[in-house]
Description:
The complex is a heterodimer of chains A (362) and B (102). Chain A is an all-alpha fold. Chain A has two domains: 52 residues; 278 residues, no CATH class. In chain A, 72% of the residues lie in helices and 0% in strands. Chain A contains 14 helices and no strands. In chain A, helix 1 packs antiparallel against helix 2, helix 1 packs parallel to helix 3 and helix 4 packs across helix 10. The longest helix of chain A is centred in the N-terminal third of the chain and has 27 residues. With 102 residues, chain B is mainly α. Chain B has one domain: Winged helix-like DNA-binding domain superfamily/Winged helix DNA-binding domain (Arc Repressor Mutant, subunit A, Orthogonal Bundle). Chain B is 58% helix and 12% strand. A three-stranded antiparallel β-sheet of chain B has the order 1-3-2. Chains A and B meet through helix 2 and helix 3 of A and helix 3 of B.
Amino acid sequence: MTLTLRLAHLLLRAAARRWPPDISADLLREWQAELSAAGSSRFQILGYAGSLAVAPTADGPSWATRFATVATAAGATLLAGALSNAVHATTAILLLPAALLMALAAWRARMSPAAAVLLLTPPLFVFLFIGNAVSVMPFMGFQDVAPAVATWAVAMLATIRLLRRVPALLLGSTISLIAATAAGSLHAAHSLGVSLWSAPMWFPLSLLPPETGHASALLLANAAVMTTPLLLCTVFVLALALPRRTPTTTRTPGRAVVVPTLPRRALTTARATGRAVVVLILGEPGSPRRQATLGAATALAAVAVCEATLLATADPTALAGRVLDHSAVFGFGFAAHPTGQAVTALLAAALTLRLTEPATPR
Amino acid sequence: MPRMTASVLKVVAALLAAGGDERYGLQLMQATGLPSGTLYPILVRLQQAGWVESRWEQTDPAAEGRPARRYYLLTADGTAEARREVALMRQQMSPFLGEAPA
């Protein structure tokens, strides 16, 4: 059997595994029978098998759903980047609301934690690797970003696959971040002559205000740019992995109905009024008008954020001065190009639409 | 009833055009121009909806020099529904094709 046929059979087996067990064996037999007649060229044979390997199954998510999920993950990475910039540019206390926002986004994102890790990893790499329009970070090359992101992905996948309890998940995630920061800073440590014994401390130290004057200061400043987006992406994954309680609606029999107090009634009325006003302006949740308005508004906001970030990082001299005090914002370098800005706006809009669409299909 | 998309219509139209003859997957791929990844999920959905039935070719693989194929055929219900859907599509498209509606 030629290498092409061997690869085609592998693809067919992978394709059949995605189908329900009661029909997968018959489908595999059928596809294998037709593969020999599918064509004589490698392109035709691999095209036949490859199409089956990647196509949606009869009851599986469609291409549109798949695209929405990928765009949501990429949008979440951009959100992590934008929030990281806000934290670095202002105060570290903002990290808490930023983490909360990422957790809320995850709860609305509707994807498995493993899928989240796999889908967050490529855009995270792209964001860190090509995000800097002006290369102010000395250790932000392929040999720095790739080990950091790859280590994070492998360690997070192991964490969510092997651990179930909340403390274990938190510990596993922290170890993942420590390992990712260390892997991403090895090249810097080697170049700066920083001892590897201090590697486990690089992650926590990168989140703290820096001590200048040390050889490690540059290493930590460099690491800080990577660790904040990684931390926020970790929160996103953890929010999906942590067990969630489903609300119970049982009511104790015979218990009297509690009449809401006046402040509570006022709050309920205010909420209802606010909701009515929003519906009047934007339309019902999930309606085309509301979706279009939200998507367009988010896209415009994303373009505005891109422009503001580019403006903030336009002067390399001023930016270099902020590197060592960890206040340097990481540039959305790709947004300098119109295509990059359009993609950023599209991903931001896709994320918003996914997060705001009703939970049940309309 | 399966969701009627352009691809599903192509498949049922190809099976209708076969005039009651059975077709196997590759023949339907050639007739519709659909890739394998689109065609087979449609055939599964059509079978689940009862529009299409399939049977394995009764042949000796050693004598034929190839494995047995799976053949597809529209059921009686499927034929009626497919005719209705194809006619509906034709009616909807007729203003754009410059034809008089049937």
